[in-house]
């Protein structure tokens, strides 16, 4: 369970398990991401976020080590007070890490809200997101702060997007430190 501020997401990972023939991939593990809203059934918004989350996870999971298997990641939204996609990304990475799956790198999600006056806010609340001119979420890898995924809602210039990315890459270091300390606490290896 990961919760920056008042947004919290519970993650569960199942597999690697035997894949259904229809979903089996001969050369790697088939990865499925299911995003469950706090109430009701998943809709268009959840489906598009599932795709972004799956693409990000597939970029780091070394699925070739588990061909013909299925890995299912279920993310349950417990509360959404803003920055939901980045919270889902962080919960997904922690779940992969916790399951001991082989990963090429860790990743984290950072959301930036671009205010009407051009100010950049990190981890915006739902209210700050409503007032923003644009909301940008990045998935950033621990190796060389590479961008694995970028999602933009609203309008911003290329220059503003680059400024948001730079801020997100700096913020990513803090998230990776959090991962390290929580893994250390859990396994008492530090």
Short description:
This is Exosome complex component RRP46. The protein has 190 residues and is of the alpha+beta class.
Question: What does the secondary structure layout of this molecule look like, with pairings?
Answer:
Blueprint: E1 8-18, E2 30-36, H1 44-60, E3 69-79, H2 84-98, E4 107-114, E5 120-122, H3 126-131, E6 134-141, E7 147-154, H4 158-187
Parallel strand pairs: 2-3
Antiparallel strand pairs: 1-3, 4-5, 4-6, 6-7
Helix pairs in contact: 1-2
- How many domains? The number is 1
Just name the CATH architecture.
2-Layer Sandwich
What is the H-and-E element order? EEHEHEEHEEH
Please list the strands of the largest sheet in the order they lie side by side. Answer: 5-4-6-7
Percent helix: 25-40%
Q: Enter the CATH topology name.
A: Ribosomal Protein S5, domain 2
- Average pLDDT score: 90
CATH class category label:
Alpha Beta
Question: What radius of gyration results from the CA coordinates?
Answer: 17 Å
Q: Identify low-pLDDT runs.
A: none
CATH superfamily membership, which one? Answer: GHMP Kinase, N-terminal domain
Task: Tell the overall outline.
Answer: globular
Structural class: alpha+beta
Tally of DSSP β-strands: 7
Domain Exoribonuclease phosphorolytic: 2-102, 106-170
Protein name: Exosome complex component RRP46
Subcellular location: Cytoplasm; Nucleus, Nucleolus
Family: Belongs to the RNase PH family.
